[in-house]
Amino acid sequence: MADFNASVIICEPIEEVFAYFADMANAPEYMNKVESTEKKTDEPIGVGTKYTEVRNVRGNKVYAEIEYLSYEKNVRFTRRSSSNGLTIDYAYRFSEIPEGTQVEFAGTVHVKGLKMRLMRSFLVKMVKSEDSDHVQNAKEVLEGVVESL
Question: Is residue 39, in this structure, part of any structural domain at all?
């Protein structure tokens, strides 16, 4: 069960919207805390593709390893972020509709260890506050409402 989710309609073709979300190089444009990403694998984006992500969290650089767990072009993908015992699954589903593209997002937080389990509700709130608006931000970027966030 997802810990947080979002849905948005983007008035652009599904191929463009999917490609934009699937390429982590674009994440700094629509995810406010993401400073940079670096692709670590050579093959085209798909299951097993890996990135390193750098976030600015409360003035500190936080590094995460990102791995694609599922990938169905123009339909859906799931990527997993792992950092310091905190694992988050980001699942996206794309549907072509008359207005453009429906994007549905679900984020699920996984923790390991007693300390992390005790902090889980705090961690969910923190991640939700950092990431819950990113699909809306992407909509604004893709539709040209803003140049970048």
Answer: yes
The residue range of the domain holding 109 is 4-142
Domain count, the chain: 1
| 149 falls within a domain | no
Rounded Cα gap, residues 82 and 121, in angstroms: 17
CATH number at residue 16: 3.30.530.20
Residue 116: per-residue pLDDT:
81
* CB-based burial label for 49 (10 Å; 0-12, 13-18, 19+): buried
Task: Give the HSE-up count for residue 85: Cα atoms under 13 Å, Cβ half-sphere.
Answer: 11
**Structure letter (DSSP) for residue 113:** S
Residue 135 lies in a domain: yes
Q: What is the pLDDT of residues 92-124, one digit of tens each?
A: 999 999 999 999 999 999 988 788 888 888 888
Q: What is the DSSP string of 19-65?
A: HHHH-GGGHHHH-TTEEEEEE---SPSSTT-EEEEEEEETTEEEEEE
Q: Cα-flanking dihedrals φ and ψ of residue 51, to 5°?
A: -130, 160
- Residues in the chain with pLDDT values less than 70: 145-149
